[in-house]
Every structure is written in structure tokens, then in C-alpha cells.
Amino acid sequence: MKTEVDLVDVAGGNLGSVRRCLDRLAVPYNLVNPSNPPDGTRPIILPGVGNFGAVMENLQKDGFDRLVKNLVAGGTPYLGICVGMQILFDWGEESDSAGLGLLSGKVVKFTQGKIPQIGWNRIECADAQQTTSKPWPAGYVYFVNSYVAQPDNSQDILYVADYFGNFCAAVRRGNICAFQFHPEKSGPFGQTLLTRWLESVSVGGANNLKKSDEDGRVARLSGGGKC
Amino acid sequence: MLTKRIIPCLDVRDGRTVKGVNFTNLRDMGCPVELGLMYESQGADELMFLDITASVEGRAAMLEFVERVADTLSIPFTVGGGVSSRENVTDLLNAGADKVSMNTAAVNRPELINEVSTQFGSQCCVVAIDARKKDTGDGWEVLIKGGRETTGLDALAWAEECAKRGAGEILLTSWNRDGMQNGFDLEMVKAFSESLPIPVIASGGAANPESFVEVFQKAGADAALAASIFHDKLYSIADVKEAVKSAGISVRD
Q1: Of A33, B80, B190, B248, which is least packed with CB atoms within 10 Å of its CB?
Q2: pTM tops 0.80, yes or no
Q3: Is there a contact between A184 and B74 if contact means CB atoms under 8 Å apart?
């Protein structure tokens, strides 16, 4: 049986397409929000599109942002999509406001090319994150973004892509994983990536996470942790 | 590197796909959901569904149709045609459309663009512009109501205003070329691609894979949209991608 996930439904936008994609993958999900909060026993998926500040504002209702942050800091697997990735960082230029600060770095506007970047771009796994046993495959995924994350720790970068220069297309650090692109709109390859993540956080994968915790490789809150 | 997008466009009326020549003389082309799925499997990068239903009943059917498409496809799709208000946009996005394309309504009330982009983000806000060469030969003018009405608006100035108001993309249709299958309007697409800070989808006139090569290479389009050449099975998406790729242009394989 596939691992059940908690899907955050307060950040708007692409929730519907993520739900449909999970349906296609036959992954059971539970919608979580301030009135039905996650308890940390299931991996959390936080999709989001639109404005960084607006997404943060929606999350802040009833302290939901702190709840999610504490669970993720405590080891609950997290997958952020699009703005769900951006809000992991300390600060976003779009609204000049703070993110969750689970990863150290900022989110800034593209400085070249048409903005937003819209369309399919090729992503490749960063050398530091590639594994031979279960590789993160390269391929084309669908992007719609004007802003990109700049992690302070380059080893957090999972995937890179090129839009008038290399940019961070995905991050992974311990139990935290996030895609700037839309796996739910990226055809079969996008579903492969979602499955790849789901496998890494399923029961066997969670044990692996614990092992890496003992190795000291699981997420350490950057900047001393502010939660 | 960001790839150039190939976008089949399906005109939908009462749940069927139709395609017009110069916006009239509609021919029936088959079930749009099936066609959409076939194009996705052929490698289409996105799909565009243009609702040409006029009736109120047709509107409700369109929302059900959009839900079926969203359930079925795993690539992005845009819905346009007759979008007249923020409520229309909200309904279509809620039904599962990734983007909504606005045309006449945006010309009549440009604030609609600001409202949609502020509420839902620029990423879902496409402004479609039907443009025709001015009689003076100097630039292009905006047509509305499916090409039936001239506005006197300069199309490039209007596109620039749309971008400022928060549009994420411009879908630029050449009224002179639409349905004619004699190639995209390279001069017009080039002028828009070079001036606008947002992506331009070229539309109208695709005749063969070479048309796509030209519009990317010579006119700098970010994406190109076509209907007849795909629906008539003159060429597949794969044929077009192969030609574009062999010309050294980056496409998703």
C-alpha cells in the first residue's frame, strides 16, 4: 500500500492539479489546513503558486505556518512545489518578506530573459546529490516562475537548470525536498519524480532517513533555527 | 535551456472540436478530450482550448469539459474564448484550467488583467490579441469579438500595456494569416517578441514544420500554436519537433 500524504490546502493555486496527479498515481492523501492540522505522521506536500507574500499570509492564519515549520524541523518529510519551495527560505524578494526559514537562503527575481520563465526546461541532478543506487534522473519539466531560490548552502541544491545561467530547480536537505517546477504538470517524467520522492519517504525510505540522521545528514536548521 | 513550445489549439463548441478558416466556416473535428490526450502523447508541450460556444448552457458544459480535460491531461492547458469577467476566470481555474486567456473582455475593461494577475498570479493570465495589419501598413491594430470588430487600438502598444498590467503571456494571432496555412506572420511576431518583456505565443498561419522553424528562428517566438495542420493530420507534433530540433532549436524530446 502506498504511503498516505498530507496535502496542504491553504496555499491556493495548483492544489487541484496536484490532487489530480496524486489520484493518477493512486496515492491516498489527506487535506490539511488550520482546522484539520497535520500531526507529523505523514509526509507533507505543500503546493503553491502566485505571490510569495500572499502564500505566506495564507499559511500564517492561526499559526499554521509555525505548526508546519515545527513538524518539518522535527523530521516530517516535506515536499514543496513552486512557491511551496520558495517559502522554505529566509526571505523572498517578491513581497520583501520572510519565509519559513527552514533552509538558509533567499528567493530573488530572474535578471535576464522573458519573465516569467514559462515552459519546459531540462533539469540535471547536482553532482553532490547524485546517488548511484537510486539516481535522480535528468529530463524536461514544466516551469512557470519569475523568482528563483538562491540557497546559501550549495550542497542543498538537488537539481539545476539553465535560464540565462544556471539556477536552482530543486533542493533536498534531509527530510526536506522541493521542486521549483511543476511535477504535476510535467507529463510522465514529472510523475516519475513524484514517485521517486514518495519512495524515498515511504516506510523503507523513512528508515533510510533515520539512518542518515544518525550520520548527521538530516536537515539542520540553518542559522540556529528560529522556531 | 528553456525549450520552444509547440501548442495545438482546439476550438470547442458544445463539447466538440471545430476549427474555422478566418474565424468562420466551422468544420467538425472530433472529441476534444480524446484529441487533447492524443496530442499530449505525441509530445505537445501545452494545449489551448478555445471555447466558441455562445449560449449560457454551453458555458456550463464548458466547465464540465474543463474538469474532464484536467482529470485526463498531465501537461498544462489554457482555456480561452468568451471569458468576460473575473467570475468566469475563477470558475475556469477552479475547474482545473492552468491558464485562462482573455481577449475582448480585456480590451473593454483592461483592469480585468490587473485583477486576475493580482488574485491568481501572472502565470495563469494570458491575453489573446487578434491583430491585423493596419491599412496604412504601419503596424497592426487590435480586432475583437472574434475578428468581427476593429478597435483602432495599436496592437503592440496594447500588448505592452497588458504586460504592465500583469499578463504572463501574449497569445498573438494574425488575422491576416489565421486559417490560411501560408506561414506565421514573421514580421509581426518579431516586432512583438523583441519589444515585450513576457513570452509571446505566435498563432495563425502554420502550414508545415518549416513554419515553426521560421517563427522560432527568424521571429523569436517563445511558443507557436496551430490547429488545422495537426487536426487534419497533415503533420504530427513529432514531425514538427523533429524539424525544429534538426534546425538546432531547443525543444523537449
Answers
A1: B248
A2: yes
A3: yes
